[in-house]
Amino acid sequence: MYMEKDAITAKLQNMYKAFCGDKISEEELYPILDISQIHFYFKGEIIQEIQQPTDHTGILLKGIIRNYYLDSEGNEITKYFSREGSLIMDEGILGYNQSIVALEALEDSTVLLMDTVKLKHVIQTHDTFKNLYITCLESALRYKIYRESEFLSKNATERYLQFCKDFPELVNRVKQSYISTYLGIAPESLSRIRKTLKNHI
User: Fold this and answer.
1) Which among 69, 80, 85 is positioned nearest to 135, based on CA atoms?
2) ∠ CA 83-190-89 to the nearest 5 degrees?
3) Which of 22, 114, 145, 194 could disulfide-pair with 119, CB 3.0 to 4.6 Å?
């Protein structure tokens, strides 16, 4: 599972271009690479627990990671599925001292892990990363608005169809029980929806 520095740099460059629509040189990436370490997590491994100190932030280079809450009865509620290129474990940058979600690797995953304090310094002192961070915040806000609108205006079937449209690569790679909690419906309800849709194809 070892990853060469050149491969890491290439992945970061591709992610930056996909996200910002622009190129970034290897030299411009040095401030991030200098404070980073590669960590590998196996499928099923818990990467972060709720209330864990937020002293590290990561970029998911490969794999899928589930972000989830625990309700008052200890049930897991999926918040988001992080995919390649996602910023993870980012509560510390937003000012939280403890994590508010748990993270589970749904596949063998590779994460570029950075000290949060050092990362905040890089963002504050390098315009390239300051602009990238603003873009990330805008994207996160759009997603939050989208999620709120979806729950208020769409029924369960519509939410599932929208999930299939937005995340087609996840439909068959993620447990249906995880998708159901992401959609805010019971697993049995999702099974009925899938069966009904299949019968109408």
Assistant:
1) 85
2) 25
3) 114
pLDDT 10s digits, 132-147: 899 889 998 999 999 9
Cα separations (Å) of 48 from 19, 37, 140? Answer: 25, 16, 20
| Cα 83 from chain centroid (whole Å) | 5
The model's pLDDT over 158-175, given as tens digits with 9 standing for 90+, comes to 999 999 999 999 998 999
Q: Minimal CA–CA distance to 15: which of 29, 3, 27?
A: 29
Strands of 46-48's sheet in order across: 46-48, 102-105, 65-70, 76-82
CA angle 103, 106, 109 (to 5 degrees): 85
Interatomic CA distance for residues 169 and 153, integer angstroms: 25
Question: Could you read off the pLDDT of 47-99 as tens digits, one per residue?
Answer: 999 999 999 999 999 999 999 999 989 899 999 999 998 999 999 999 999 99
Band the pLDDT of 201: cuts 50, 70, 90. low
